[in-house]
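hi! just following up on the protien thing from before. the input was this:
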Amino acid sequence: MNASLLNRITIEPGKCGGKPCIRGMRIRVKDVLGLLAAGASHQEILEDHPDLEEADILAALSYAAEQSDHLILRAA
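and the predicted 3d structure came back as:
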């Protein structure tokens, strides 16, 4: 986990429905991940969203990795 990257992820109740965003902007982590999943390169994303930085894309990936590491409890 890279804490400095994760500091770029913000959650504000009145912004984007309280979903995780990049640096308080109205660009959701989910949007960045969706672009990557659709095959967009980092460069394409940065060109389409000039307010984003390379570290923001890495922060979205780091956040997703952290969120996927939850313990799953199964009922017996």
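Strands lie at 9-10, 21-22.
The first strand starts at residue 9 and ends at 10.
cheers
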